[in-house]
Structures are given as C-alpha cells and as structure tokens.
Design goal:
This protein has helices at about 5, 15-30, 45-60, 70-85, 100-110, 115-120, 140-150, 180-200; strands spanning about 35, 40, 65-70, 90-95, 125-130, 155-160, 170-175. By secondary structure, the protein is α/β, with parallel strands linked by helices. The protein contains 8 helices and 7 strands. The protein has a 7-stranded mixed sheet, sandwiched between helices. Strand 1 (about 35) and strand 2 (about 40) form a beta hairpin.
C-alpha cells in the first residue's frame, strides 16, 4: 500500500489556506513592535539598526553575544549563535549544552539554568539575546536580571501577551503580536536573521 493511500483525506490544505497562513505571517513580521525598557516605542528599522550596531560593538570591544532560549527558542539560540559567529564574524555562543542544563536543573532548579551560567561566564559588556515566545519563562527572565547585574546589555524577543514581563527587561525589546508558537518562533528567527543579514551587507532583491 502506498503512502498516499495511508494518508487520511482530511489532512489537506487549500491554496487559500496557505495564502492566509503566509499572509498572516508577513503581517506579524512587519508589525512587530520595538520598545525600550520604559515602554518607549522605537521605529522598527531603527531598532534593527541599533541591534546591528550593538552586536558589532560588543564584538569589537572583545566581548561576546550570548543567546538563550527554551525549546524551539533554544533551537533558534543555537542556530543564531552559529550563524553570527560563522557568517557574521561576531563572537557568539548559546548556553544550551544538554549535560549542563540537566546538571543545573537537577541541582539548582530549572529556573536557574541560564542565570547560573551567565553568573559564571558573562562579563561586563556582553550582550545577552533572550528569546521566549511567551515572555514568561522564569529561566529567561531570571537570567536577564543576572545579566543586568553583571553589567551586560540585553536584547529580548517575545510574543503572546503584550504585557509579558520579558518585554520590559531589555535595552531593546522586540514583541511579536501573536499567541501561536509557530508564528512567534518564525518571526523571532527572521528578526535575528535580518539583524545578521543586513550586518553582512545583504541587499534584498526586488520582487519580480
């Protein structure tokens, strides 16, 4: 029996479904909000430009960019740490080693898995990029507060509720107005890539 014959007929989408899905994805991307810690709104392009400058200044000062996130956001953190280093020539890392995470969560509680690593390894002038779809993960918000105490800069990416706590903790805060993980995670990845790609001199091609 072929794979097609085993596929339930209800597992299908229409062209219209896909069009609406990707149209809404574009909507959440282009309507992402950027703010400072006090809630002051920033022009989106200005916030991306400032993120580029901050990342480059961090590297040029001999410091590093640290990406943190849970679950899908952890995958984004690892992906971006690799790309920022390899493609962007920027000193970057993520804190997602499996043995370290299980050790620290077992001994100190999961809420401390990133805070403890930042306390041990971050130095003044480092840039922490904190990624959380909900903006409510205690492991992320606690780590950001420790980074602040260590004299680091913070850039946050969050979604779901506009009042999520992470959104108020960064020097720059990007907020994606959706309560769907897929949309928020894709948007976070795209924003991080935009910062990197423009830093590398990308000129978006015209639409044909």
């Amino acid at each position: 029996m072929s794979h097609t014959e085993n596929t339930p007929s209800e597992l299908r989408v229409t062209t219209g479904d896909l069009d609406r899905y990707f149209t809404f994805l574009r909507h959440v991307l282009v309507n992402t909000s950027a703010t400072r810690p006090d809630g002051e709104s920033l022009d989106y392009a200005a916030a991306v430009s400032e993120s580029m400058q901050l990342a480059r200044a961090t590297h040029d000062a001999g410091r590093k960019i640290i990406f943190i996130g849970n679950g899908g956001s952890a995958a984004i953190a690892s992906h971006m740490a690799t790309d920022y280093s390899k493609n962007g020539g920027l000193r970057a890392m993520s804190m997602n080693d499996g043995a370290t995470l299980t050790c620290l969560s077992n001994d100190l509680g999961y809420e401390n898995v990133f805070a403890k690593q930042i306390d041990m390894h971050a130095t003044e002038g480092d840039l922490v990029v904190a990624i959380s779809s909900s903006g409510r993960s205690e492991s992320i918000t606690k780590a950001v507060r420790v980074a602040r105490e260590r004299g680091g800069a913070v850039l946050t990416l969050s979604g779901f509720a506009p009042s999520n706590p992470l959104r108020a903790l960064g020097d720059l805060n990007f907020y994606v107005a959706s309560d769907q993980y897929g949309y928020v995670e894709i948007a976070h990845l795209a924003i991080c890539h935009a910062v990197l790609d423009f830093s590398c001199g990308l000129i978006p091609p015209p639409l044909s």
